[in-house]
């Protein structure tokens, strides 16, 4: 059978609709914020328009009010949405809500879906995910937050959380805590649904990071919070997925998050390359058009090559996901590659724009400090490379070749 990269017509159609929505409506709406229009008004208007166009929750099944897109179509959509923060918000596809919605769909009880999931799907509430801790870092099994039953139908949680993204705008928090220290390492943790605000869930501060967040980004929930959990009372009915299932559910959630980051990285890199190319075409230096200089053409060529490789990676992962195949190896490889790719492309775009790129008159400077986080979030490069390397060794021991761990099923 021939290798076929044809995108189904329905997927092309939805991509075209989303691309037009992002380019013609969402990106221009950034100017409304810059002009001082309140974020809530802009987002409310965009969401009303998006829903009227049938652009809502692309990754959620139709029976739950979403677009019901499969992995390929959703990947194509996310590769459009990532070029503008307002675009994801407009379609209720923003992080960290999206991956947590999928967790609730997969593991929530009927009660939990009615009480917690339904308002998320309707765009009435936001949710955050509190797993990371200072004491644990990349090793989630090192977390120290504890949850103990009080004998009255509740769990009592105590501990701290670190980098709880969007906690400041969340109405619900998903909190992971240790329930059984004596169980096998990956079965010690459980996950709880917490209604906010709650006196037991105290946001200490927005963690100061490399990127200087604007007031609008704080309102969007783009910041990361440090949280103290102090005698947080959670009803047993708010236990998500059963005791000891917290780590497994966390990996389920992070798997989608890693893919979404990669898709959005492609969108951001593409917009950065467009900005750079537009500037190159209009600029003249030393009596010659910048576009005519070979060194500049080489810089643009490298960016285009990186984007091409990145798209092929995600298309292959989407193909495997569509067919129910294991994507863990490819997902880990792509997560690392795409994080470096977006940094390279944005950095090149800044170089081509010169002092303009270094200013905040374009989005490039803000993106540059933001994308450095991509090599850390949802697992640092070193952890993913470690796991990828272990798979290479495992494949060779099993098959006498490393091909299965290096995309060998492509050929």
Report on this model:
The structure is a single chain. By secondary structure, the protein is of the alpha+beta class. The chain has 3 domains: 9-94, Acyl-CoA dehydrogenase/oxidase, N-terminal domain (Butyryl-Coa Dehydrogenase, subunit A, domain 1, Orthogonal Bundle); 126-244, Butyryl-CoA Dehydrogenase, subunit A, domain 2 (Beta Barrel); 248-410, Butyryl-CoA Dehydrogenase, subunit A, domain 3, CATH 1.20.140.10. It contains 13 helices and 10 strands. It has helices spanning 9-34, 39-52, 71-81, 85-90, 97-107, 110-121, 215-220, 246-282, 294-322, 328-353, 355-358, 364-371, 381-399; strands at 127-130, 146-149, 154-165, 172-178, 189-195, 201-206, 224-235, 239-240, 284-285, 288-289. β2 (146-149) and β3 (154-165) form a beta hairpin. The chain is globular and about 80 Å long.
Task: Name some characteristics of this structure.
about 400 residues, alpha+beta, Butyryl-Coa Dehydrogenase, subunit A, domain 1, Butyryl-CoA Dehydrogenase, subunit A, domain 2, Butyryl-CoA Dehydrogenase, subunit A, domain 3, 3 domains, four-stranded mixed β-sheet, four-stranded antiparallel β-sheet, 13 helices, 10 strands
């Amino acid at each position: 059978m021939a290798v076929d990269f044809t995108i189904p017509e329905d997927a092309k159609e939805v991509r075209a609709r989303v691309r037009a929505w992002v380019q013609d409506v969402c990106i221009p709406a950034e100017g409304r914020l810059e002009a001082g229009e309140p974020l809530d008004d802009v987002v409310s208007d965009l969401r009303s328009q998006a829903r009227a166009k049938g652009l809502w929750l692309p990754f959620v099944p139709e029976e739950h009010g979403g677009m019901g897109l499969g992995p390929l179509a959703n990947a194509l959509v996310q590769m459009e949405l990532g070029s503008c923060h307002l675009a994801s918000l407009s379609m209720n596809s923003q992080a960290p809500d999206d991956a947590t919605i999928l967790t609730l769909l997969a593991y929530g009880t009927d009660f939990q879906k009615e009480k917690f999931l339904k308002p998320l799907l309707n765009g009435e509430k936001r949710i955050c995910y509190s797993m990371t801790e200072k004491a644990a870092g990349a090793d989630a099994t090192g977390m120290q937050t504890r949850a103990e039953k009080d004998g009255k139908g509740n769990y009592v949680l105590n501990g701290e959380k670190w980098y709880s993204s969007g906690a400041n705008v969340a109405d619900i928090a998903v909190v992971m805590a240790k329930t059984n220290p004596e169980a096998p390492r990956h079965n010690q943790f459980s996950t709880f649904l917490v209604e906010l605000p709650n006196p037991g869930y105290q946001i200490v501060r927005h963690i100061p990071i490399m990127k200087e967040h604007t007031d609008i980004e704080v309102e969007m929930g783009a910041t990361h919070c440090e949280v103290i959990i102090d005698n947080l009372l959670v009803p047993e009915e708010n236990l998500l997925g059963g005791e000891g299932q917290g780590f497994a559910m966390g990996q389920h959630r992070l798997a989608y998050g890693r893919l979404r980051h990669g898709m959005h990285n492609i969108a951001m890199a593409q917009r950065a390359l467009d900005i750079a190319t537009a500037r190159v075409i209009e600029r003249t230096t030393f009596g010659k058009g910048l576009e005519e200089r070979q060194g500049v053409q080489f810089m643009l060529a490298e960016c285009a090559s990186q984007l091409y490789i990145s798209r092929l990676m995600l298309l292959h992962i989407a193909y495997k996901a569509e067919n129910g195949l294991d994507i863990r190896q490819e997902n880990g490889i792509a997560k690392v590659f795409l994080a470096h790719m977006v940094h390279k492309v944005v950095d090149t775009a800044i170089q081509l724009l010169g002092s303009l790129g270094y200013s905040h008159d374009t989005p490039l400077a803000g993106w540059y400090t933001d994308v450095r986080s991509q090599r850390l979030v949802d697992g640092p490069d070193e952890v993913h490379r470690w796991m990828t390397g272990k798979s290479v060794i495992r494949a060779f021991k099993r098959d006498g070749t490393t091909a299965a761990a290096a995309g060998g099923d492509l050929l």
